[in-house]
Amino acid sequence: MSTDPRAGEAGTQVEPEVLEELLSMRASIDNIDATLVYLLAERFKATQRVGVLKAKHQLPAADPAREKNQISRLKRLAHEAQLDPEFAEKFLNFIIEEVIRHHEAISASSGATGQPGPARAGSSDDPTAR
Ligand SMILES: C=C(O[C@@H]1C=C(C(=O)O)C=C[C@H]1O)C(=O)O
Q1: Third-level CATH fold of 5-129
Q2: Which pLDDT tens digits describe the chain residue by residue (130 residues)?
Q3: Which atom of ligand 1 is nearest to the CA of 70?
Q4: Ramachandran region of residue 63, left (φ > 0), alpha (ψ -120 to 50) or beta?
């Protein structure tokens, strides 16, 4: 029924009014997804700075006490927002795992100098490369 590429599979399967409603909701989803990408990019910029600070002061990459506090706070917020708290926990753990991986890489590259090393310059683990 529609050749609009935004309609996807549904374009050939539903009435024009239904399609219009679907496309309007998808436009919101696109905006939300773009916001998520920007938010995640900002969060990773901040955590990269934490990683550099930790490497400089020989602090461990992971901080389980901080993670525990964050997860209970986020689960509480998720519940209030009618988002599945278990999903919120999984999502946050997924992100934290990646952050810790970055911190370990920063620490490994900084060696004795406490500075991100030249071997990592330009890599995704080097926040100064951005
Ligand atoms: C960013 C930090 O490093 C790690 C990553 C965290 C996160 O992504 O929120 C939280 C705790 C740490 O395990 C930190 O210590 O603040």
Answers
A1: Chorismate Mutase Domain, subunit A (1.20.59)
A2: 556 777 788 777 888 899 999 999 999 999 999 999 999 999 999 999 999 999 999 999 999 999 999 999 999 999 999 999 999 999 999 999 999 999 999 999 997 455 555 444 444 444 444 3
A3: 9
A4: beta
